[in-house]
Known about the structure:
Layout: H1 2-7, E1 10-11, E2 13-15, E3 21-23, H2 26-35, E4 63-67, H3 84-96, E5 101-103, H4 146-158, H5 167-184, H6 191-215, H7 234-240, H8 242-263, E6 267-272, H9 281-285, E7 294-298, E8 308-312, H10 317-322, H11 326-335, E9 341-344, E10 352-357, E11 366-369, H12 372-386, E12 389-392, H13 400-408, E13 413-416, E14 431-434, H14 443-447, H15 460-467, H16 475-487, E15 493-497, H17 498-501, H18 528-533, H19 535-546
Amino acid sequence: MVDRAQRWGVVPEYFSYRGERVVASPEAVEAVLTALRAKTESPPRMPRRQLPEGTCAPAPERVWGWAIQLYALRSRNSWGVGDFADLRHFARWARRKGASVTLLNPLGAQVPVLPYQPSPYYSSSRRFLNAAYIRVEEIAGAERCAPDLEPLRTEAQALNAQRLIDYDKVFQLKSKALDLVFRAAPHPRGLTAWIQSQGEALLEFATFNAFAERHGAAWRDWPPGLRHPRAEDVEETRRHLHERVSFHQWVQFHLDRQLQRASAEIGLITDVPLGFASDSYDAWRWQHLLAPNIRVGAPPDEFFQDGQDWGVPPFDPWKLRAAGCEPFVEAIRSAATHAAGVRLDHVMSLFRLFWIPFGMQAAQGVYVRYPTDDLLAFLAEESSRANAFVVGEDLGLVEPPVRKRLHARGALSFRLLWFERSSPGRWPRDAVAAVSTHDLPTIAGIWNLTEPEHRLHGLRQRLVEVTRAPDGKAAVDVAVAAYRALARTKSRIVLASLEDAVGVSERPNVPGTTTEFPNWRLALPHSLEEIEKAAGPRRIGAVMKRARRNLSPTS
Length: 555
């Protein structure tokens, strides 16, 4: 079985973060082979294709920017959640203070039903945008129904007083408001041409949303004639729901326009998540390319010693390659549309993915290889086409050749203070330097030892080594010192976390948890207006300026 597994791209053993050899159980390997429908000794021969040979678009040199969770960045005018108008205002302020780029959380759409999914890494679509990020008042035609919008706006803005984001309430209030504006101004200038430019995918997406509103998010439980985009009853049902289909196309048009306006203020780095929710538009659309009864995750490592189960379905690598990697190409192309750069979450997915068969724990998973040559070639081609540089999140268990091959294609590495053992002065030039990510502790959480995962408190010594800060120093002071060290690195880009700049202890997400922590639901404790006047962000901007990182990005 081992030889057959390897021929099908299944990796029955790997080395753990401790350097120990880990061998997958025969049951796990057999479950993966079954998901691949590997009934023969070897996979079918696939025709060779001519792949693009170029490299990714060039990244800027010696710049800095902010890493933000958009939903958490609320102004006084927000409807309970940060939105594209808030992004535009923040970007304008950040650029004036010397920043060149802003890294965002994934912006993918969610299924328009309750409960509204808060996780940006478990979205309905990697191509289309999350309606929660729309600013209602800035939609063309909103002024026509201003009196009817006012009570909704007042109720939504009252949610800003709560630090915990109420996505369900935001969704309900914005949905009512969008219905009002749609009825008042259903045909804005440019809508028809934009819809045509999006092709069949937008029509299918809007159709899926209309079906979900009627039948719920679990499309596998829909009437049999609706369970596939090409199913027999889809066209007729779409005609009956044509107004809702038009509505969802209209919402996407306005989201695209608002994001475009924000992107004019600063270079955005958009985030491409590894996958999407199992009950989602992307899963409905690409179901013929997915491996059944499998979830994606990661094996145990130093930070997550039980492994991680992310709950997303994987693409069958053989079917993905036969389809010209179309889902991947589309995700990159969409993310790059209004962006200066694109970040690939878990870039190891271009090489191999950790598959967890249903009924097994994360630590029982098995690695499966992916068509790396194809994926890297298409990545470089789309990056060059859009003139958007690429950052690969090459963290965790990374095989030695991975960084070499990514570098050869012109992608930047991602280096973290929490992960790197060497001095920041020794970090590579072709990299993005940061302290942490959304899944890891903040500086305040480590410095003040309020991080709930006590095993990570040892990171405090790393801060002491880099900043030489004495006990009793304020967390924001330590953050400024840490970013001063990063500002002096050779790395092309330095990203500062907004949570660190204002001394937030909680991290946005604790992987492997569901209800234990308010993952993806914590707003920043200060409004956008207060953040723009706060000392922490201003001081971090000053250390970047002294390190001569105030140049404009080439893109």
